[in-house]
Design a protein that fits this description.
Length: 503
């Protein structure tokens, strides 16, 4: 297709810079809201089998969600894994027309918070969990790795597995648990292009140790020395407060009958205090920090104040915290750390998204079966975590529909914002010429019951199981290949995930 002109993308169109939006988008008329009346939905399993390999095609008649600008009735032309044109009434003699009338087209979702290989082999979950992600609209994930050993011994092998077995593109966050790993951070950065690292101020007993302030400060200084493109991800809870509350509750409630007891063992003020303390330490070093899985109103109150005075600070929440609360009848299989909290806490998270206090929405996905979860055991003995990447986008679309939360804002938080923070924008998280052709086609009125089969994880249970959700991804474009549930088995050998080196 060398005989047509691809629009020029200026040099300043880079990550962490002002977003470039062509005038033909900026001046176009926006579609109003997610609940805008649309034509009758097409059949859920759209037949796109006639588009082969890297052949060019045009998505025609859909409403494009352009992060930071709005929703526009535009066509998208794709060829050889990239978006080549975006505009009105596109046509090209070699391109197949794919009608998506009545649908919304969004950038491929980026889940910045996924754990793989904790309860079974990484080799298994890099297949099963990226399948779950892709079929449900997540095309890129940020995968956390943690170990007591040097990562120099394992990163080459892990990257090889990503490039040979993953259905999604993957960037890596490394947990820094000891002095050896701290000293090796510059090597992880220069050799593997890893620009995000994690610290647990409150660990997981028997798995991840708690971190004290002196080590936290050392890690901050090391990361700050590498430059402004590197970020420290922080699990913020005061571990001494959590341990104190847990020990007291175990005596008072040795056999709990509700997740409310678990929530009390991780007090909201332990999150708020840790956010405040870590932010103060970060200001002494100049490091960029990213607080994972914010869960509470108290934590959001602190985050709101910090956002006003520090531009190098970011906050994440998760789709389970936004869509589940303790007023619902939740089973022990929903145990998580930090815990799912009250409806009041949940409302504060939604407000913080509107006010740009919260920057991103992840999942904290941790794959496990009900047997591995020990869901019938005493609450104190059940490990925290749940599968969530397969329910991420459908549950958020349903919640946005019910609460009239702006679709354009929601999509920014799950696409462009994590892409910018973690250095993969504008190749990811955007619908612009030159971006990777990772796209999700959404039917905003489709109703479907959530089941483990639809979540498509290795797990034999899923969040929101049995609920009817409104708004579903019906087709995914991954690196220019059109994927549906009907053709996935046939196409899966041609879907190649990539490791995203970020410097």
């Amino acid at each position: 297709m060398s005989n047509h002109k691809i629009p020029f993308i200026p040099e300043y169109f880079k990550k962490n810079r002002t977003t470039f939006v062509p005038e033909w988008i900026a001046k176009d008329k926006q579609v109003s809201r997610i609940d805008k009346k649309v034509p009758a939905a097409l059949h859920e399993s759209l037949a796109y089998d006639h588009v082969a390999g890297d052949a060019p095609f045009i998505l025609k008649g859909g409403n494009c969600v352009i992060p930071y600008k709005g929703i526009f009735p535009l066509d998208i032309m794709v060829e050889k894994g990239s978006i080549v044109l975006v505009g009105k009434d596109l046509s090209y003699h070699d391109a197949t027309i794919v009608g998506v009338e009545g649908k919304y087209i969004i950038p491929g979702v980026i889940d910045p918070h996924v754990h793989l290989g904790i309860f079974t082999a990484f080799d298994t979950e890099i297949v099963s969990e990226t399948r779950s992600a892709l079929l449900n609209g997540v095309t890129t994930m940020g995968c956390y790795l943690f170990s007591q050993d040097s990562y120099l011994n394992t990163l080459d092998e892990i990257i090889h597995k990503i490039e040979n077995h993953s259905f999604c593109d993957v960037f890596i966050h490394l947990g820094i648990l000891n002095q050896k790993q701290l000293e090796e951070i510059p090597l992880y950065y220069s050799r593997y292009g890893i620009t995000s690292y994690k610290i647990w101020m409150c660990g997981i007993p028997g798995l991840i140790p708690d971190v004290e302030d002196d080590f936290l400060l050392d890690v901050m200084e090391k990361i700050a020395s590498l430059g402004e493109d590197v970020v420290l991800n922080i699990h913020a809870e005061n571990h001494r407060i959590v341990n104190r509350a847990t020990n007291r509750l175990k005596k008072a409630e040795p056999v709990p009958d509700s997740l409310k007891v678990w929530e009390q063992s991780h007090p909201a003020f332990a999150e708020a205090e840790a956010v405040q303390r870590a932010s103060w330490l970060a200001r002494q070093t100049g490091v960029r920090i990213y607080f994972v899985h914010m869960s509470s109103r108290q934590g959001i109150r602190v985050a709101t104040e910090l956002k006003r005075e520090n531009k190098n600070i970011y906050f994440e929440t998760t789709s389970p915290y936004l869509t589940l609360n303790l007023e619902q009848d939740l089973k022990f299989s929903y145990k998580m750390a930090p815990p799912i909290r009250t409806k009041d806490d949940q409302n504060s998270l939604w407000s913080a998204l509107t006010e740009d206090v919260l920057d991103t929405i992840g999942t904290d996905h941790t794959c496990m079966s009900l047997e591995e979860k020990k869901a019938d055991a005493n609450l104190w003995d059940i490990p925290p975590g749940y599968p969530a990447v397969g329910t991420h986008l459908p549950s958020l679309l349903d919640a946005a529909k019910r609460t009239t939360f702006p679709l354009s804002t929601l999509i920014e938080k799950i696409t462009a914002s994590p892409a910018r923070i973690f250095g993969v924008y504008p190749k990811k998280g955007s619908i612009l010429p030159g971006s990777d052709a990772d796209l999700v086609i959404i039917d905003p009125v489709l109703k479907k019951e959530m089941t483990p089969e639809i979540a498509a994880s290795r797990s034999d249970y899923c969040l929101h199981e049995g609920k009817t959700l409104t708004g579903w991804p019906v087709t995914v474009v991954k690196s220019g290949r059109i994927i549906t549930r009907d053709n996935f088995e046939r196409e899966k050998d041609s879907i190649k995930g990539r490791y995203l080196k970020r410097q």
